[in-house]
């Protein structure tokens, strides 16, 4: 099992309605069959760090991650969500003992970016991003 946590803040000027729409879109992503558990909502960390919201999903294994990346809801959600994000930080953790798991996950991520230039460009356009 591995957990992917995204802490984020919307861009200034993104309305409450647009925020709600973006949160609904990523909540749909978090409910796909590939996800074991999820939380989408407020970030409870230090406000001085600049994050207001969080997205967390538990993914069982690499096969489930590939299914998650390929889910139409994932791309649809990101196309609506990513352009509205000003700041994004990814934190990942696992209980898997495979020392190469991080690299395997990164390889799947690179493959997704290479296969979907529009999605990759949306990520690259986020003003402050830590993946």
TrEMBL record:
Domain of life: Bacteria
Domain spans labelled Stress-response A/B barrel: 2-93
InterPro entries tied to this protein: Dabb, Dimeric_a/b-barrel
UniProt-recorded name of the protein: Dabb family protein
């Amino acid at each position: 099992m591995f957990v992917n946590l995204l802490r984020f803040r919307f861009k200034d000027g993104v309305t409450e309605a647009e925020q709600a729409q973006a949160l609904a879109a990523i909540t749909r992503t978090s409910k796909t069959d590939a996800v074991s558990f999820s939380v989408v909502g407020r970030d409870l960390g230090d406000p001085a760090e600049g994050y207001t919201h969080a997205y967390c999903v538990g993914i069982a294994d690499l096969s489930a991650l590939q299914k998650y990346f390929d889910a139409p809801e994932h791309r649809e959600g990101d196309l609506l969500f990513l352009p509205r994000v000003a700041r994004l930080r990814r934190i990942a953790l696992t209980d898997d003992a495979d020392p190469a798991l991080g690299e395997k996950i990164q390889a799947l991520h690179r493959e997704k970016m290479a296969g979907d230039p529009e999605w990759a460009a949306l990520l690259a356009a986020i003003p402050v991003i830590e993946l």
